[in-house]
Amino acid sequence: MTASTKGFALITGASAGIGAIYADRLARRGFDLILVARNQSRLNALSERLARETGRSIETVAADLNDKSALAKIESLLRDDPRITMLVNNAGVGSVASVLDGNVDAMESMIGLNITALTRLTYAAAPAFAAKGSGTIVNISSVVGIAVELLNGVYSASKSYVLSFGHALQRDLAGKGVRVQTVLPAATATEFWDVAGYAKQKEAASTMTADDLVDAALVGLDQGELVTIPTLHDGDQWTKWEADRRALAPRFANAKAAPRYASNAETAE
């Protein structure tokens, strides 16, 4: 490792967009990097630039996380390489297609990348970090995990999963020295929109740059946020929404159905 390193950050989906910006920013913060993506030539170009500009140690792994053997290789890295101190689960794919227009095989592939790969990598990293008593897991969700009607239903549901999974991780890892941050970007100007089939979103006035998104997310991490929503200007709105959600939990514990579900016969008695 390079002198005075903060350890290695393993970043998935690292060859472009949000992942590449995370690589740049974390290298400049003193992390060495393991960059994971499918496109080896892009990984090489990014790693060469960052090594030259920052002096950090940069390793690359070309891997399709929807391929079981490739995914298993990254899991093994996270379990067995003690140099790794951070995991950024950024790899993902989206869609704007409705259930009437979408291809179910493409939706299954989306679930594999957005949910299965993220889950397996987290399950590999979390015990290793907990055993050391330190480490950080950053999971990239989306505001459509809350505003679920905005895009494709499977994509929104996959990002709702990431948000819920993050809450459970924070509960399970409390007191273990492992930080878990869930980041919810809104529309961000990356190739995501080209793949999703709505490239013009990148030019919208409300679309954030990937640089601004990652910079804000890292400030949120520094401030100890569990959930970071860079485009939400009134943070108290999230705090209240989350408090109201959690306040519902004890109200579900009833052995009998609510009166509004009484049958007509019961109502007539």
Structure description:
The chain has 269 residues and is of the alpha/beta class. It has one domain (8-268): Rossmann fold (3-Layer(aba) Sandwich), CATH 3.40.50. Helices cover 47% and strands 13% of the residues. The chain has a 7-stranded parallel β-sheet, sandwiched between helices. Helix 1 links the parallel strand 1 and strand 2. Helix 3 packs parallel to helix 4 (104-132) and helix 4 (104-132) runs parallel beside helix 5 (153-172). The longest helix has 29 residues, at 104-132. It is globular. The mean pLDDT is 93.
Number of self-contained structural domains: 1
What would the principal axes of the Cα set say about the shape? globular
Number of helical segments with 4 or more residues: 9
**CATH topology (fold) name:** Rossmann fold
Summarize the structure.
The protein has 269 residues and is α/β, with parallel strands linked by helices. It contains nine helices and seven strands.
Summarize the SSE layout with pairings.
Elements (H helix, E strand, L loop, with lengths): L7 E5 L4 H12 L3 E6 L2 H15 L3 E5 L5 H13 L3 E6 L14 H29 L2 E6 L12 H20 L5 E6 L8 H5 L13 H13 L4 E2 L6 H14 L15 H5 L1
Parallel strand pairs: 1-2, 1-4, 2-3, 4-5, 5-6, 6-7
Helix pairs in contact: 1-7, 3-4, 4-5
